[in-house]
Amino acid sequence: MGLVSTDTGHRWPGRRIPYVIDDTDFPEGSAGRQEIQRGIDLWNAQAPLPLVPRAGEGDYVRLREAAANLHSAVGRQGGEQGVYCDIGASRQQRIPGQRSQASPALAATGNSIHLVHIGNGSHDLWHSMFDGTKWSTNVRIPGQQSKAAPALATFTGGVHMVHLGNSSNDLWHSVFGGSSWSTNVKIPGQQSKAPPALAAHGGRLHMVHLGDTSNDLWHSVFDGTKWSTNVKIPGQQSKGTPALVSDGTRLHLVHLGNTSSALWHSTLGGAAWTPNVRIPGQASKAPPALAFDGTAVHLVHLGETSNDLWHSTFDGTAWTPNVRLAEEKSKAAPSLATFGGRVHVVHLGDTENDLWHSLIDQGSRNLAAAIVHEVCHAAGIMHEQSREDRDLFVTVHDDQIQAGQGHNFEKRTDSADDSGLYDYDSVMHYGPFFFAKTAMTPVLSPGPATGGFLGAFANIGRAQNFSAGDIETLHAYYPAWTPNTPIDGQESRGTPALAEFGGLLHRVHIGRSSNDLWHSVFDGAAWTPNVRIPGQKSKVPGALAAFGGGLHLVHLGDSSNDLWHSVSDGASWSANVKIPGQKSKATPALAEYGGLLHLVHLGDSSNDLWHSTFDGAAWTPNVRIEAQQSRGTPALAVHGGLLHMVHLGDSSNDLWHSTFDGAGWTPNVRIPHQQSHGVPALAAFQGRLHLLHLGNSSNQIWHSIFDGTWRPNVPVEGQSSSVGVGIAPFGSQLVMVHVGDGSTGLWHSSYTR
Ligand SMILES: [Zn+2]
């Protein structure tokens, strides 16, 4: 992910989101509440701002149910706000004019779903097709009747049906070739007391059915010409019709117990079926249904005692806890088919013989990830495909979007900023068919970019958890700064200079009202009382950097623009020496890079930027950095093998970025949407570049991270300063010291990540 609200005031204070779970929507002990808890646990396992039970906070989220309508406001709204999780996911619609007295059967081809069902009051078999938009009027299949539900599967381009006799347990086989059904043919020597299950797998059509009078399960295959003799599956019995689906590698069989409503799972990989294993915690009062969507095996079944429909998926290793399909009920087994990348469900009504059609959506597919998605919204994050740069990465087919849903695919350029690289794997990315008019043509297809993104297009809408990019974005949006604490007894009227040297963090700052320079040291716990550096004065703050076994200080004269250089061994300072031929009207910047100490400073009277290096013995003559000016001190830091510089505009508060590779400086580029009225500070820490600056007109301190691109800046909660801040990495912390907002007291804060 990487699209964050520009309204940073809607972030949550204290890096936490207080929550309550709605007790009516998700009663204590209910399956729904367990799902909500799974979502909270998934969030808290990685998010830098945890969900914490509300303890009187005025602003909090309430986790609520809303069928087929996951949503949440973006960012903290003030007071209570709902996070609607959609445990259910019903979009069921009645199939007009069709009724059945038994379970329907489904099979999908490339361009339609086929539905066959028996009549409402007869054993006639009726056939209808769904083209992605609507169901055709059902047509009676001539000359065929079945006393119970039929079974369907697609195999070698045709739709194959096996059904019971009109009054016998015989099994009959017929094929729909595209325009009509073949005359049904009795499968020799096979009978079943309940409808069979069919699935294509490994180039053959497989059938599993019950015995003529027993609950034994029998397996037979059709090679395109004839059915093999059926073989009993050892050790497996079912009191009702089994369900069968192939994942391309294995054939999955799920069936009821011999006498119980427990659900059992077995697979056929090579020649033999695995022993069946109980699916933990799941039971059904009617036969189950299966489908495979290219990622997971989907199971839908009735409740153990209710007509509710439950959904679970198998990822190749384990079944997810089942989740109720909200508002959907069926008095008999449902049927499933995968079509257009989505799992379709057709089932009877709760009490009547009407046929209902629905899609299993993202919410019920992985509720925990869906909760994470919605809480991301509450945290201030928007959909990935709404980024300003999205046209490079996805193509949006506006003509395929459901009426009234176009707003879901608009770019958010006013209210949000892109953060980091475009991330197909983001939990905030829609799938190809979200809000699609039909299940046949996607709304999203790949864009033209061949690089410069994270993840893979094939993963969109399938996230089971945060992506790595999601976590980076949350950390950048909620940076981990500690509240600042005063450094007792130390004051300065300017930006302090910080540098790690000899295992300690050193700070040099100008006096509160004098030009004296003061030195203090932090050992990780406390700052030492500051000590005046003897014999050195500067009319503005100095710059500090470790280089070549010494701590180097460069500062202006007491009243002149001359630049002076002094070195410390950590305890005492050498007498300062004037750097020949160099003058600056403002504090210079120092950094070690490529075995040299680099100095960048303003002109004596101009805003030009000049660059000079020190090799341990002498300073090179300074050279003007072409076409770059700054109205204040620039900031330097080394990151990714380059020396980075950020500086103000020549006369504006804009922030500009340039890098030096040892030979030359790149043209400077403006950092989007960031301004500062004070000088910026830059430091490399834990593989990222950190920029701290003031507001455009306020003294609020802002933080931005560069990890290849600049992430949107965010205010450092509760911290402001009259002038630019000092920052430096120190061990496992990034330390910031700044003066107060309107006062000369010094404050200390740290960032760890
Ligand atoms: Zn969303």
UniProtKB/TrEMBL annotation:
Question: Sorted alphabetically, which keywords does the UniProt record give?
Answer: Hydrolase, Metal-binding, Metalloprotease, Protease, Zinc
Ubl conjugation among keywords: no
Q: Where does Zn(2+) bind?
A: 373, 377, 383
Report the Pfam families cross-referenced here: Astacin (PF01400)
Sorted alphabetically, the Gene Ontology BP terms of this entry are: proteolysis
Specify the Peptidase M12A domain's residue ranges: 371-481
MF annotations from Gene Ontology: metalloendopeptidase activity; zinc ion binding
This entry's comment on the bound cofactor is: Binds 1 zinc ion per subunit.
Q: What name appears for this protein in its UniProt entry? A: Peptidase M12A domain-containing protein
Entry superkingdom: Bacteria
Q: What cofactor does its activity depend on?
A: Zn(2+)
Q: Where is the active site?
A: 374
